[in-house]
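Entry 0007
Protein: Methyltransferase-like protein 13
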Amino acid sequence: MDLLPKTSEEFTKEEYWNEFFRKRKEVPFEWYGEYLELAELLHKYITVKDKLLVVGCGNSKLGPELFRFGITNQTNIDISPVVINQMKQSYPDVEFRIADVCNLEFEDSTFSAVLDKGTFDALCPAPTKSSNSTDSSVEEGHSSDLMLREISRVVGSRGRLLCVSLLQPHVASRLLSHFYSLGWMIRVHRCLDAETKTEERNTENTFVFPVFMIVFTKISLPGGMKPLLEASSMTNNKFTRFDNLDELLLYIKEQQNFAIRNRMVIWFHRRPCPAGLSSWIYSFGGSAFNEGSEIP
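Output (structure tokens):
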């Protein structure tokens, strides 16, 4: 079943997602991990008192599972009427709406928490081989830019955006730069449980990339004060603080490079490089391997 788009622009089209979910039917498609693998972090930052918006919900069970565990004041949105109708039938007690994250109809500061799992990754334009892979610039009015503006608008003071992402360099630069410029606190977690379980379920021998959860907190800072930048350790709950955004972006890239090198040795030692892997490696800022070549 061919579900991949021919171009990245198709990710922004209602028609693509309608066809995607017609083919998937009611089989959940979980980008970057399922509820149980993300639950510890989700419940650390989303409480039963929050008013939650889940953007680009698709047919993920994330919203319904949070609802089941007490986070009932939530709204799930997606651009596809097909999937929204499916989810309404499957979970009649949970609120689902057809809506475009790039043009939200909610008032300012409506929500205390917003959750995105893979939507910004899908909308953010990938770099071309003639451009810098970390370039965060997009044309005025691009869907990824509009998405960030709308989320910034509907989150209230001290509210949070939880974004689950692969944080490819062009995504990380665009995403983190936007909220850093607004003075929001930024905290980065590595989702190791999600990576491990994805590898265990990986029946097609596809490459599993590092998964992150970035927590952005809307704070009004005194004049001249820099936003707080933190990343959690992979081995404990301690946090490393960074003096500037470049240091945090470098830390993320080092985490990715280390994980990718290790997994390439484990999964592809003396095997042909799978079709499409070289372009993915390139998107992370690494050297592109020739498809069909052997990994030493």
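Curator remark: The longest helix spans residues 245-268. DSSP finds ten helices and nine strands in the chain.
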